Every structure is written in C-alpha cells, then in structure tokens.
Amino acid sequence: MTSYAIVGASRGIGLEYVRQLAGRPDSTVFAIVRNAAKSTHLQAATKGLKNVHILEAEVTDYSTLEKAAKRISDVTGGKLDCLIHNAARMEPVPVMKGFDDYPSMDELDADFIVSYKINALGVIHSISAFLSLLRAAPTKKIVVISTAGADPTFVRKAGIANMSAYGMTKAAALIATTKYAVKLQDEGFIVVSMSPGLVDTTGTIGEKGDPEMRTLILGAAEVFKKKGVSLGAETPEQSVSAQLKLVDGLKPSDNGLFLAHTGGEYRA
Ligand SMILES: NC(=O)c1ccc[n+]([C@@H]2O[C@H](COP(=O)([O-])OP(=O)(O)OC[C@H]3O[C@@H](n4cnc5c(N)ncnc54)[C@H](OP(=O)(O)O)[C@@H]3O)[C@@H](O)[C@H]2O)c1
C-alpha cells in the first residue's frame, strides 16, 4: 500500500487529489481538513470508500497536525509515503487585495500576517508534523502546491500588482519548501513545489458552486492571453491528473525544483 496525506482536502485541487488517489486500489489516502462535518463535497466523494480516512487539522495550529500524524501512524504502522500540502488562504476578497486596498497600514499588517501564518508557516508546520512518518517510509516524497503568482517573472509579465499578500506568502512558502529540499537531500527525500496552472475550482465553493467566480477565472485567463502569458483555465480533473503523473515519476534529481504541472521546471 502507498500512503498519501493531502492537507487541505475539503474542496478544489485537494479534493481532486483525494478523488483520484482513492481510485487506486493500492493506496491509503488521508484527507486532512479543518472541519470534517462541513467538508460536504469530500464526504460525498468518499462515502463508503475504505481506503480514505478523513482527519481534522488546522495548519496554523501545530498541535492539530501532530494529532493527525498520530492518527496516520496508528493506521500505517508509523509510515507515510507522500505528503501533498495544498492548503492555502483562498477566500477571494483577501486574495485579490493590493497594497492600497486596506483602510490603514495596521489593517494591511494584520491581514498579511493572517496569510503568512496559513500560506507560509502552514507549510513548515505540515512538513515538520509528518516528517518522522515520511522518514520511516521508502518513498520520501513531499509536494507543496505553489502558484505562478509566487514567481517574479510571471508577476511582471502578467502585470499583477494586486494579490499582494497571497503572492508574497506563497513566495515565502516556495523558499521554505526549497530549504526543506536542501535539508533533506542526503536522506533521499524528493521535495518539490508544484504549480497547478489556472484551475477552475469554483464547482466546490459552497454547496452548489459559484458561477460568478467561474466567470472571473475564465476572464483572468483571457487577460493573461492578451498579455502573452499562456495560462488557460483547466478543470481540477485535468490539472490533478497531470500533477499526479509528475508525482508518480518524481526522481532524486527533481529534489528542490519548482515544477509546472505540464512537466519540467516552472517558467513564466
Ligand atoms: N485554483 C487555482 O487556479 C490555483 C492556481 C495556482 C495555485 N493554486 C494553489 O492550489 C492550492 C489549492 O487551491 P484551490 O484553488 O483548490 O483552493 P480552494 O478550493 O479554496 O481550497 C483551499 C483548501 O485549503 C484549505 N485551507 C484553507 N485554510 C486552511 C487552514 N488554515 N488550515 C487547513 N486547511 C486550510 C481549505 O479548507 P476549508 O474548506 O476548511 O476552507 C481548502 O480545502 C492552493 O495552495 C493555491 O495556492 C490554485
């Protein structure tokens, strides 16, 4: 059996990872969410599946991740093959804000710190909590879902001055992931960041999806195209199936890379 922990599995890309991995008969999937009862899309998608375990953790609260690691250990006998850290602060209003969109500098500071705790420190908390389990398995793969928005060349080419806290804190996560790759290199780990592309995850917002957000995402793809940045919106199924091909094929020389879901190192 190959064991996977997906952190941020309630909806969107994380949910799709659970769905696709659960379809593999030789896999055990730990879907880690903030609130299991409210993760209705996940509950519906995994109902009756024996190889999916839903666990609760909040990435800003390290003790909850430690408890999730203990629960995984109880099921697997102390091992975890692959960690996929996907959780991020994605609520549209804070994500879209630029530097001038705050009533005061104190409010900017407070909001950026919220994003930093989830998007940057959350990665460190998650890797650290599961590290002893990952060390005990032969696979030793850690995948952190990143974004083109953490890359200065993409930000410049696409002309994105807003999404400030999101971009800055995801860039911090990219460096944190790279540091772990360097730190764990000699132990045989493969630690990578993965850009998922532009993914229309609006189908799992709320109970019935969010058509307005969908229009915004499709509009963003058109704007990028006009600026010469090719980034068409994909379905979660398309993006995650491409990501999983890369995760399956990760090799030691990939350690530390920022990969594009389409293959190879991410380039804007
Ligand atoms: N969609 C895109 O086009 C796109 C593009 C580039 C990169 N990404 C990256 O892909 C990843 C997933 O994005 P998505 O579009 O699938 O977003 P999404 O549908 O909004 O899902 C975000 C997930 O993160 C979880 N989460 C948020 N804060 C958390 C916390 N404090 N502790 C634990 N879990 C938390 C959410 O759980 P709750 O349900 O509890 O809120 C949810 O499961 C993110 O890392 C994002 O930066 C997405």
From TrEMBL:
Instruction: Extract the SUPFAM superfamilies matched here.
Output: NAD(P)-binding Rossmann-fold domains
Q: What Gene Ontology terms describe what this protein does at the molecular function level?
A: oxidoreductase activity, acting on the CH-OH group of donors, NAD or NADP as acceptor
Q: Name one Pfam family in it.
A: adh_short
InterPro entries in the cross-refs: NAD(P)-bd_dom_sf (IPR036291), SDR_enzymes (IPR052184), SDR_fam (IPR002347)
Transmembrane stretches, start-end:
none
What is the protein name given in its UniProt record?
Answer: NAD-P-binding protein
Give the species.
Answer: Polyporus arcularius HHB13444
